[in-house]
Design a protein that fits this description.
This protein has about 130 residues and is of the alpha+beta class. It has a single domain (about 5-130), classed as Nuclear Transport Factor 2, Chain: A (Roll), CATH 3.10.450. It has helices spanning about 5-10, 15-30, 30-35, 55-65, 65-70, 125-130; strands spanning about 40-45, 55, 75-85, 90-95, 100-115, 115-125. It has a six-stranded mixed beta sheet, covered by helices on one side. The longest helix has 14 residues, at about 15-30.
Length: about 130
């Protein structure tokens, strides 16, 4: 089985926190292909409210095409910091939007194995998130 470029680069002394940071940088560029290169084929994504769940890399990639509908109008990330290095990395994301101009925070849990994300789970204040739309 041939290794993908992402798998090869992931094994070259790159921490799981580095992989997560690389993903946030891809999001900032809108480079969805670069983002999903670091996800396993059978990954899961759990969205705000914990009720919506995407299963599989292809479903996640399709959802990224309409990401604007899943985020509050004017959504902007002002800072991100990582907690953890290996296996589980949590990103603390400072954000604001048109209806939350004072800003807020959310957390995103990334679970990784073999240099690939197999789970991404967002934790938000669901009442505030809903009110931001």
């Amino acid at each position: 089985m041939a290794e993908t470029q992402a798998q090869i680069s992931n094994t070259a002394a790159v921490s799981d926190a580095d992989i997560v940071q690389r993903g946030w940088e891809a999001v900032g560029r809108g480079d969805w292909d670069a983002l999903i290169a670091d996800y396993s084929d059978d990954m899961i994504f759990v969205m705000p409210g914990q009720n919506d769940r995407l299963e599989g890399k292809s479903a996640f990639r399709s959802a990224l095409e309409n990401i604007g509908a899943a985020l509050p109008p004017g959504f902007d990330i002002s800072a991100i910091r990582q907690i953890g290095e290996s296996g589980e990395v949590v990103s603390i994301v400072e954000w604001k939007s048109d209806k939350v101009p004072e800003g807020s925070q959310l957390a995103v849990l990334f679970r990784l194995s073999g240099g690939l994300v197999f789970e991404e789970r967002w934790f938000v204040d669901t009442e505030q998130w809903k009110a931001a739309f």
